[in-house]
TrEMBL record:
GO BP field: cilium assembly; microtubule-based process; multicellular organismal-level homeostasis
Top-level division of the source organism's lineage: Eukaryota
SMART domains: WD40 (SM00320)
WD repeat windows: 14-48, 56-87, 98-139, 140-181, 193-224, 225-266, 267-299
Protein name in UniProt: POC1 centriolar protein homolog B
Coiled-coil region(s): 429-478
Naturally occurring in which organism (per UniProt): Lepisosteus oculatus (Spotted gar)
InterPro entries: WD40/YVTN_repeat-like_dom_sf, WD40_PAC1, WD40_repeat_CS, WD40_repeat_dom_sf, WD40_rpt, WDR55/POC1
Disordered, as annotated region: 371-407
Pfam short name (any one): WD40
Keyword ATP-binding in annotation: no
Length: 488
């Protein structure tokens, strides 16, 4: 067990969101943290003390997922407004809008080379996009209910996804086919899924409070944890692959030692369900966010273990080099883990050890207020199944009549650079966006029909090939029988 000096410590405490924090991700340089919220805003926090934070306007509804590109030059976000945005994390606040989903976008994830983006949606589909060309590539459509999460494997050859159909699916990006399905979630939805750092295992969490780890090479369940008293909303692998951190609606963050197969820390600090958690790229920090609108940044500390010392307690290994991975855990057979009273409870009493709340710079505010109606009235479907049992709504206008925060045009530019538009520009733009939405839905229907047509054509060709083969066999038998009769 780690000593007191090795326990996680709370380093920073960020306040700036006006509603639940739903997602978080560190930049590759560990200098910035991106968070999304039910307040419709994307925020970029600079981790240096006294540095400014940036609030980006663009989405019209809950921001459900956010991720930095591997180079750090872009930030992708998905929203309940059915759009995906690629942001430049700078003072200009530029973003490109992707519209092909017809329902809430739950998840966004870059491939390791940064060339592709996979998105998961309540329209039951996954979509893969070209980041460089900024265009839609293809869909994956075998889920039968909402898709909660999708992630690329480290080598980009596979995609793993999970959803409300209670399945975890593994996809081949070359053949665009589902090559494996894990269905071990009973009557509950699978909420989150990801690959470990080596790409040999996947972990998945469920609304049934469980965390499961699978070896995708043998299709075997390696570990099964039941350590939370409520649903697990999110988790993150440590870059070493030896630890995993979970965020739950029971208001706790828990850290699991995957080498020893046990819970080592339970962290308190949030008031209410915790919806987001993420390790930094180097693993020395992790962040958490929840329905209390707070973002907490923690110093990891426990990752400073000497792995050779850890290996002395790991009977399945003989040679301590290289450091062990998940498939070398003892015992190797599936086993269940429950809450251990010996795990260390960390309950920080100091909210912020570094700075006061950072100055927030607002970027990309709309030049024109949106005319009337709520997000639901304007065609964005109402939320279902958001963790914590809340139905998140965007902020409303203040009594002073000021413009509602988060309202923006459907296409975002560096708006501070554009002035002098005619007065009917906003209504014309909204009309164009409505027509694009109709076109998007039409394309989605045509895509499904084309897929069905291709399947039927393939089936017909296979049947025709079988008929031709049967005819040839019959002709050969007839010819053989004829030759036998002539010889007689």
């Amino acid at each position: 067990m780690a000593s007191v000096l090795e326990d996680p410590t709370l380093e920073r405490h960020f306040k700036g969101h006006k509603d639940a924090v739903t997602c978080a991700d560190f930049s590759p340089t560990n200098k910035q943290l991106a968070t999304g919220s039910a307040d419709t805003f994307l925020m970029i926090w600079n981790l240096k003390p006294k540095a400014r934070a940036f609030r980006f306007f663009g989405h019209k509804d809950v921001v459900s997922s956010v991720q930095f590109s591997p180079s750090g030059s872009l930030v992708a976000s998905g929203s309940r407004d059915r759009t995906v945005r690629l942001w430049t994390p700078s003072i200009k606040g530029e973003s490109t809008v992707f519209t092909a989903h017809t329902a809430t976008v739950r998840s966004v994830s870059f491939s390791q080379d940064g060339q592709k983006l996979v998105t998961a949606s309540d329209d039951k589909s996954l979509k893969v996009w070209s980041v460089h060309r900024q265009r839609f590539l293809f869909s994956l459509n075998q889920h039968t209910n909402w898709v909660r999460c999708a992630r690329f494997s480290p080598d980009g050859r596979l995609i793993v996804s999970c959803g409300d159909d209670r399945s975890v699916r593994l996809w081949d990006t070359t053949s665009r086919q589902c090559i494996n399905t894990f269905t071990d979630y009973g009557g509950s939805a699978a909420t989150f899924v990801d690959f470990n750092s080596s790409g040999t295992c996947i972990a998945s969490s469920g609304a049934d409070n469980t965390l499961k780890i699978w070896d995708i090479r043998t299709n075997k369940l390696l570990q099964h944890y039941q350590i939370h008293s409520a649903g697990i909303n999110c988790f993150s692998f440590h870059p070493s692959g030896n630890y995993l951190i979970t965020a739950s609606s029971d208001s706790t963050v828990k850290i699991v030692d995957l080498l020893e197969g046990r819970l080592i820390y339970t962290l308190h600090g949030h008031q209410g369900p915790i919806l987001a958690v993420a390790f930094s790229r180097g693993g020395d920090y992790f962040a958490s966010g929840g329905t209390d609108s707070q973002v907490l940044v923690w110093k990891t500390n426990f990752d400073a273990f000497n792995y050779k010392d850890v290996l002395k307690h790991n009977r399945s290994r003989v040679n301590p080099d290289p450091p062990p991975h998940l498939t070398n855990i003892y015992p190797r057979s599936p086993h269940s883990h429950t809450v251990s009273p010996s795990s260390i409870q960390v309950n920080p009493s100091v909210a912020d050890t570094q700075t006061v709340d950072p100055h927030v710079v607002e970027i990309g505010q709309s030049l024109y207020p949106k005319m009337g109606g709520s997000s639901h009235e304007n065609g964005v479907p109402a939320s279902r199944g958001w963790p914590g049992g809340r139905s998140f709504q965007p902020p409303h206008r203040s009594s002073g009549g000021q413009e509602e925060e988060g309202e923006t045009c459907a296409v975002t530019f560096p708006l501070e650079e554009h002035t002098g538009f005619p007065s009917n520009f906003a209504s014309t733009l909204e009309h164009i966006v409505e027509q694009l939405d109709v076109l998007t839905q039409t394309v989605a229907v045509l895509e499904k029909r084309l897929t069905l047509t291709e399947d039927k054509l393939k089936e017909c060709l296979e049947n025709q090939a079988q008929i031709v083969l049967q005819v040839r066999e019959a002709e050969e038998r007839e010819a053989e029988s004829g030759s036998c009769n002539s010889s007689l």
